[in-house]
# Entry
Amino acid sequence: MHFNTLFNPSSIAIIGASTRPGSVSNDVIRNLHTQGYKGHIYPINPKGEPILGMTTYTSMAEIGKPVDLAVIIIPAPKVPQALREVGQAGTHAVVVISAGFKEAGPEGAVLESELQTVAKEYGITLIGPNCLGIINPHSNLNISFAKVPARTGNVAFVSQSGALCASVLDYAEEYGIGFSKFASVGNKACIDEVEFLEYLAHDEQTKVILLYIESLNGADRFISQVRTLTSGANRKPIIALKAGRTAAGASASASHTGALAGNDTAYDALFKQAGVIRVSTVEELFVYAAAFAHNGELKGNRIAIVTNAGGPGVLVADEVASNDLTLAVFNQDTQRILASSLPPAANMKNPVDVLGDAQSDRYETALNAIIADPDVDGIITILTPQSMTDVAQIAITVSNARAKGGKPLIASFMGAKSIYEGDAILQRHNVANMLFPESAAHAMAALYQFYNQTRATDLHTPTLNNVRKSEVEGILQRAKAEGRTFLPEAEALAVLDAYGLPLLKSTHIHTVAEAHALAESVNYPVALKIISKDIVHKTDVGGVKLHVAPHDIPASYEAMLQVVSQKAPHAHLDGVLAMEMAPKDGFEFVIGVNKDPALGHMVMVGLGGVFVEVLKDVAFRLAPLTAQDVDEMLREVKASKLLEGVRGMDPLDRAALTECLLRISQLVTDFPEIQELDINPILVLPKEQGVRVLDGRIIIANNA
# Structure
């Protein structure tokens, strides 16, 4: 990959350069020419007319010397040939701003495929097509048609939307956020977010990474790269805004970039699993970006609040308590300093109210004492502009306190015109300032979330060797040969048994004689379940009967065949599965798998039984799972408290349930043709007694 050349080129060719002001290519050249780029610019246009006083060339070949980077801004049908000429000239970094590719339909998709072929042939690192461009403020590089230049800073922004990029640059000015790298990836024909993350992991100018995502492909690549970024000594937070959360949004996303959108539940699981902080709005994206850009790690959840207004202090206290944070309890030294220095009417406890007439001296006293308190991990400072408030001087005081203290500090200077000067001072001193005080609490919670989730200790995906993979291959191959996608319960249970999931004793009954033989050989009640390749929901056609006594097995067998034949006359019946009744102790959970078309297998666990679709007490992660993934899933589920034992009930076998989830993860990883898998219920027995699979259903893709 030629990312360093992309962001630090010594020469740039603009293919499709235009003399017309206001055109995309003219704006790109103007941005380069007027914003301080020091390298050589080679406009390319068949007419050869000078642009902004620069010599124009008719082709790459006419330049006659190597060029680091080419920017292509011509009609889509001409782009593949232009890219080939770029490759022949020896240029290995290209930005294709032109639109009209897969986002435009089938013909555009063919053109995009040609771009991929040419880029691979010549070893070209290609950004786009259908993008805004790229920016590196540290080298005065602005290869885009964005109107607002980017401020230099430590935040990298990678976006699938070009138009959003232009707005982001404008918003960033208001929030005092500067950028290390800025990229619009467009259709991601060759380079996607994962390659960018790999580059940014080693970019010393980048501290925080922002992503705007409409679609991703391959959860395993994304998770692996994000975990590399968010672990270790130089870990970097990744904050993502994912569009297309609803069906309508997903449809709009697909038409925007021509990409296949995945299930939003899968993305939610992906971000949790990878360690990405997900936001829901552009405002949240900037609030969190400012907090991370201007603060170090928040290593505890004890937060102090200093305010000159009681109401906002209470609002922030509420948000602190609602976001896994807690109000700090000051030590005796801090309490003594506050009591001796603040007016008697001030509130000395947390939140500390320095009163509405407070000037910078009260803020200084309170902040210095609180920052020195070892029982405080982070500080939120609130200011409301009263008639006597010296906003600028208090902003200087807050900036100095943050610089000396070393602890995360987020300000909320509330208002607009009245706090303009103070906001500017805070920005100059790299203090994160939020317009609304609740945002300060949310941002502080995000800092703590990042610290917690990046202390992962077990990121190893276990490999279970005691599985009979060949048996599963045989079952699936037979189903495919018969043109089937649905595995009846007997086959599904055989697949689960091959991967070590504990089953109840069962027998396949084909005839009345076999039913009589079973009745004479067992001394416990059984459940009878119809076996048919054509019946997915057995209970709907009378295909399930529970608590059948041994002597009733033959009659129940015949009665079931008769009822099912009447209700599903076209179904081929392959007998009945007789299964021992489950133990009475234990609790019903559910394990499920659904394959997302873009991200892969999504594994689910939660409260099982007949209420699973009503209560929806479930959690998701993407396969392959680690033991830590499973632990996080189980902690998310409200019913997981049952595993610990409640109201006198013995603890359940959490370890056995964990192992089952890891085995299911390996099963679907080994067999990507599995589209859906459902174990409902799986009975979790008391601790050290294991689990039992009570029912199983598997659907496969016949063309896999």
